[in-house]
Amino acid sequence: MIVNLLNNNHSYSIQKIKKINEWVPGKLFSITITKDKNFFFKAGQFTRIGVGINNDTNNIIWRAYSMVNSPNEDYLEFYYVIVPNGKFSRILSKLKFDQTLFVRRQSFGFLTIDQFQKNTDNLWLMATGTGISSYISILKDKKTWDRFKKIILVHSVREIKELTYQEIINKIKIEQSTIGNILTYVPITTKENTECVLHERLPIIIENKRLEEMAKETLDCRCSSVMLCGNPEMLLDVRKILIEKGFTTKNSDNSKNLVMENYW
Ligand SMILES: Cc1cc2nc3c(=O)[nH]c(=O)nc-3n(C[C@H](O)[C@H](O)[C@H](O)COP(=O)(O)OP(=O)(O)OC[C@H]3O[C@@H](n4cnc5c(N)ncnc54)[C@H](O)[C@@H]3O)c2cc1C
User: For ligand 1, is residue 232 a contact (CB within 6 Å)?
Assistant: First the structure.
């Protein structure tokens, strides 16, 4: 009863942790929590989640996290990194099954396919690290595939073990191929050398065209839409190169074909 009253009166709802997945011990986790029935979002958006410092609900700290699940699933999933000495993620790492998380009732952000007014041949989703969160949501959403028949998912991480969500990516790839859609997955590991995986930073492999070779797709402002998500330094460098190649973040003549989301 008290929880229900609190749930109805605040700008946030109170949710319970139902599953915690440790992808890379001590570093990369995902968390599945209950979802308020009135919480809506578009694939690619984020919300703010809150934790009470020392379990004190008068002292909640908030951080932005992208939803990993698709909008029509009846739970919320977040994928996160534990930042060394990070105020919020350190508390998050200690939470256990059935404990409480606060979730803002609003969703935010423009890393969504409706930002692109024009239809293009392909959609490039480029992420560093946890930036892949929003793209899993986008790839799970049927609306994405109604608009784009060819999608290239580029995930740049430091080490191979950080190439997470591969099972889901593979499942989507197989499902979509049965209806003629193509999902191409291009992993990049910048600190570990392995065969068949690219190792250089994204700006370099875009400029020297290795990324297009690997994906067997064209990255061209006349036929591609691009999303960038994650490390702000990477976003800045890639943005510069793409703008030089004719991409635009502006929507004059409905021509926007580049959208991005900085994680810090
Ligand atoms: C729109 C948006 C969406 C976000 N979505 C996610 C998400 O889905 N998953 C997620 O883990 N984080 C996400 N973040 C970052 C998140 O909000 C927090 O900043 C992060 O969890 C660290 O909080 P903290 O208090 O532990 O660290 P802080 O004390 O706030 O330390 C911040 C420092 O940690 C580093 N950092 C922050 N976030 C990351 C990250 N994701 N990967 C690597 N280094 C990082 C940066 O160097 C930054 O300066 C998002 C941020 C924004 C703005």
Answer: no
ipTM over 0.85: yes
Task: Give SS3 for 170.
Answer: helix
Instruction: Tell whether ligand 1 has an atom less than 6 A from the beta carbon of residue 169.
Output: no
**CA–CA distance, 138 with 67 (Å, rounded to integer):** 10
> Do residues 30 and 17 lie in contact, with contact meaning Cβ atoms separated by under 8 Å?
no
The CB of 46 under 6 Å from ligand 1? The reply is: yes
- 109 within 8 A of 86, measured Cβ to Cβ: no
pLDDT tens per residue across span 123-163: 999 999 999 999 999 999 999 999 999 999 999 999 999 99
Are the C-beta atoms of 129 and 165 separated by less than 8 Å?
no
Residue nearest ligand 1's atom 45 by CA: 83
Structure tokens at 246: 């004719």
Domains parsed from the chain with CATH numbers: 2-104 (2.40.30.10), 113-262 (3.40.50.80)
Burial 108-140 (b: 16+ CB within 10 A, else e): ebebbbebbeeebebbbbbbbbbbbbbbbbbbb
66 CB within 6 A, ligand 1: yes
The pLDDT tens digits of the residues spanning 57-77 come to 788 999 999 999 999 999 999
